[in-house]
Design goal:
Blueprint: H1 2-31, H2 41-63, H3 65-72, H4 76-97, H5 101-115, H6 128-147, H7 151-172, H8 177-194, E1 198-200, E2 206-207, E3 230-238, E4 245-246, E5 249-250, H9 251-259, H10 307-310, E6 315-320, H11 324-337, E7 342-349, E8 352-354, E9 368-371, E10 398-399, E11 412-417, E12 435-439, H12 446-449, H13 457-463, H14 465-472, E13 477-479, H15 480-511, H16 518-524, H17 527-545, E14 557-559, H18 564-568, H19 571-583
Parallel strand pairs: 1-13, 3-6, 3-7, 7-11, 11-12
Antiparallel strand pairs: 1-2, 4-5, 8-9, 9-10, 12-14
Length: about 600
């Protein structure tokens, strides 16, 4: 009897400890939403504490599963809910650090939930709130798979989500069934838009290509002592109204964030506090000992490690239709976090906010700008809704070029993708710091305008020049062997353009001829910024040669201007683009070139 009582007391302590860890984990997780989204020091320690508690909770339920099953009544969906929270932790940590290896960790947990069918009996619990958790899990898993380019799995998950939504709405007839139907349509529309050009295996099945930066795709560069800057902080803003989106990612944001990330490496470093390390006999770890760098603030993180040397990617913020005040706060935070020698990149994909001023004198505020959030405040009064100021006042929900003047105190690289992009070409360099502005065409030919819903053409050029080239020539699918052959022309173009940029700089030094602004040279040493500059050059040359893009507003601009004869109009670059067009069998889309093209 004494032994039985002792066992029951031990079991009771196990259940109490589990309840304590479960409640503490929920409190910490719920507190995450109150943390500031910007800055670094404000949230890292809290994330570390949250990871530590979930580590203990996960190991505890593994070690004491039999007791928890019999004495607590632990259900599989409850285990799934813990795993889902850990997956969310890793995903949000990826968003805050920009390290793609954390996406792989989030994927491991979400895949484990599906593989072990933790939510398989959710509908039998007769709890609509549990079914909503299951649907949200699917939506989050799809986002992670999209970012990891696991498109085959994405399509499988969409089919499963559709079936789960049907089951949920049939069983409960909930008030949010229209909302879930819209989520499903949004996902399907995003997937359709994402596959702008299909690359096919020999058996005609599509191949998924990654467009993150890798050693094989990093443009070559003959480095000089003037190439001093590295990209450290990024702000990616998506405010285009009629563009395909899922969750809070527009297609342009989705493409640009991948362009500004490196391929995840296989070099994983084990972390003592990894929530699923040391898997027990129940539900072996899907990600055992595979935490890439550790979580700052957690017990497994090496506090004296140099975070900057470990970080593969620049830190970035993603903002979907922010208010102007939100945009300025995040921009200021990125500005504040810049280390010495660091550069800040602002990318904005947005609809134009147009001015009615007939004789502008202030280029900072009288030429219009970019519409930010479409949300309206009660104090808007008589201001127009469609992005034009009225009654002599400026549109408050608009980012004007003048709003960016204070941030030119540090090295600033701006990309504007809008139908009002050119108004940003007049930003002055009051403080003598490096400043480059890449601006999209303000107009595109009528036969491409219906496709703008699938994402901007300019951003597509910066993301994947080969895909954009196919896009403007109406090439819908390409066999993989042919794609690789054509991609070699793009690689040749980028290599030659890089050589010309360096040569322009050397000629300037040796002959005193000001071919290329020093801002480009200072940014050119950074792999990401060099890639963007060279892809911009490809975009300009390709559209300049294309018969369909004849107006000046249908080609991109940059400030400071890149040299024409020495770079943008150089015969060797035009020759390579025309060779690519011939290889794609679309030579008729382009103007006549030199013989032998």
């Amino acid at each position: 009897m004494v032994k039985m009582a002792s066992t029951e007391e031990q079991d009771r302590k196990i259940v109490l400890e589990f309840c304590h860890l479960l409640e503490k984990s929920k409190q910490l997780f719920n507190g995450l939403r109150d943390l500031p989204q910007y800055g670094h020091r404000q949230w890292q320690a809290y994330f570390g504490r949250t990871f530590d508690v979930y580590t203990k909770l996960w190991k505890f339920q593994q070690q004491h599963r039999l007791v928890l099953d019999s004495k607590y009544g632990l259900k599989r969906w409850q285990i799934g809910e813990i795993a889902s929270k850990i997956g969310q932790l890793y995903y949000h940590y990826y968003l805050r650090t920009s390290e793609t290896n954390y996406l792989n960790e989030a994927y491991s947990f979400y895949a484990a939930i599906r593989g072990r069918a933790y939510y398989s009996r959710a509908i039998k619990e007769d709890r609509p709130d549990l079914m909503v958790k299951k649907l949200r899990y699917y939506a989050r898993f799809i986002v992670v798979c999209l970012l990891l380019k696991k498109m085959k799995l994405v399509r499988e998950l969409v089919i499963e989500l559709e079936r789960q939504i049907q089951e949920y709405t049939t069983t409960y007839e909930p008030e949010d069934q229209l909302e879930w139907s819209l989520v499903l349509e949004e996902i399907k529309g995003f997937i359709k838009a994402e596959s702008a050009v299909a690359v096919l295996h020999a058996d005609t099945n599509p191949i998924v290509l990654s467009h993150r930066l890798s050693p094989l795709t990093t443009p070559p560069c003959e480095r000089t002592p003037h190439m001093t800057l590295s990209l450290q902080e990024i702000l990616i803003v998506g405010s285009a109204c009629e563009q395909a989106k899922f969750s809070e990612l527009t297609m342009d944001m989705f493409r640009m964030l991948q362009t500004l990330e490196r391929e995840p490496t296989d070099a994983m470093h084990p972390m003592i506090g990894h929530p699923m390390a040391h898997g027990g006999p129940h539900d072996a770890s899907p990600a055992a000992s595979r935490m890439p760098y550790g979580v700052p603030g957690s017990k497994g993180y090496v506090e004296n490690g140099d975070r900057r040397t470990m970080r593969d990617n620049p830190h970035k913020y993603l903002l979907y239709k922010p208010s102007l005040s939100q945009l300025m706060v995040f921009l200021s935070s990125g500005f504040k976090e810049l280390p010495p020698g660091g550069a800040l990149l602002l990318y904005m994909s947005a609809d134009g906010c147009f001015s009615t001023t007939k004789h502008p004198q202030d280029y900072g505020y009288e030429l219009g700008g970019l519409a930010t959030s479409v949300k309206r405040d009660a104090v808007d009064g008589g201001l127009s809704v469609r992005g034009k100021s009225s009654a002599g006042y400026k549109e408050p929900h608009c980012l004007y070029p003048g709003d960016l003047y204070p941030y030119t105190r540090r090295p600033l690289f701006i990309i504007i993708d809008s139908d009002n992009s050119f108004v940003f070409q007049h930003i002055p360099r009051y403080f003598g710091q490096p400043l480059v502005i890449l601006m999209s065409p303000q107009d595109i030919p009528a036969n491409y305008q219906d496709l703008q819903h699938h994402g901007s053409l300019f951003t597509l050029f910066l993301h994947s020049p080969m895909t954009a080239m196919c896009y403007i020539c109406n090439v819908g699918d390409v066999p993989i062997h042919h794609w690789e052959r054509c991609q070699s022309y793009v690689d040749r173009f980028v290599t030659e353009a890089s050589r010309l940029v360096t040569r322009c700089r050397m000629d300037e030094i040796e002959q005193g001829i000001g071919y290329i602004d020093s801002s480009y040279v200072q940014f050119f040493g950074d792999d990401f910024l060099r890639t963007l500059i060279l892809r911009f050059v490809f975009c300009d040359v390709a559209l300049r040669l294309h018969r369909g893009f004849r107006g000046r507003h249908q080609r991109p601009r940059c400030e400071p201007p890149l040299p024409g004869p020495e770079l943008l109009e150089h015969p060797s670059l035009a020759h390579i683009v025309l060779q690519l067009a011939t290889a794609l069998d679309v030579r008729g889309h382009f103007v006549e070139g030199p013989e032998g093209d």
